[in-house]
Amino acid sequence: MNELTTGERFSLTPQSLDEAMRFAEILSESTIVPKDFARNPGNILVAIQWGMELGLQPMQAMQNIAVINGRPSLWGDAVLALVRSSPLCEYVRESDDGETATCRVKRRGDEEHVSTFSMSDAKTAGLAGKSGPWAQYPKRMRQMRARAFALRDVFTDVLKGIPVTEELMDAAQERDMGAAEQVAQPAASAPAALPDYTESQLKENLDAWRDAIEAGKATGERIISMVSSKYTLTEDQKRAIHDLERPAFGPATAQAKDPFVAEMERAEKEQAQ
Q: Count of alpha carbons within 13 Å of 6, Cβ hemisphere only?
């Protein structure tokens, strides 16, 4: 993202929120990204952030982080790589006797920890014979389960609490209960429509709102909430307000309340009532 000087290595790691958003948009249009990220810059941004937390470069994160049932997760081989590269790890040893997979791990300064996963465990969990990897590669799936248990138990700090993909793939899907029965409610009088917020009003306030956001006294969402309590905003107007936050990267520093903040909080309370 930055210009290179002689001897520097090229890096695609974003240095600001604006760079991260542009990077995610470019990658989302690429034909070589995993399907979870195709045309989905939001998922790409989440993957990049998770990768930074775990010590992965953006492209490594894209290849090793999967979104399962709406949750970001890490493939078992990437979990093993992260743990083995950590100075906290003495060893990870795996074995399988044809019925039970065993994973032995040793953290520096601690006793050896052993986790197992057998076909009996798989049957109890309703996994044995399940169509897909459990029917085709039961040994590999036992290995992934034993590995996930051991590494997550012993190296939670290294993995930052991220779940393992193979485990999430086995989790039961939420049951589809069908369409909810619609119960007729007594007709209520429609609330009076709020007046439109004019473009001249928007332009008049944008500079003041930008100053408030940069000073940490407001956010785009709170400004929209305040204005929406009295006026109707268009999507373009909401987008213009959100765009005021783009130069900022990371949470704003808390500031003392001023009349502008008090007015926003008052509007939020009125909406909540």
A: 0
Residue with tokens 């953006």: 58
Predicted pLDDT at 230: 83
Q: 265 or 56: which carries more pLDDT confidence?
A: 56
What lies within 8 Å, CB to CB, of 266 at 6+ separation is none
Q: What are phi and psi of 124, to 5 degrees?
A: -60, -35
Quote the pLDDT of residue 175.
Answer: 47
The whole-angstrom separation of Cα 225 and Cα 164 is: 38
Question: Where does residue 1 rank: exposed (0-12), middle (13-18), buried (19+ CB within 10 A)?
Answer: middle
44-52, long-range: CB < 8 A, 24+ apart: 45/20, 45/21, 46/72, 47/72, 48/14, 48/20, 48/23, 48/24, 50/160, 50/162, 52/13
- Rg of the chain (C-alpha set): 26
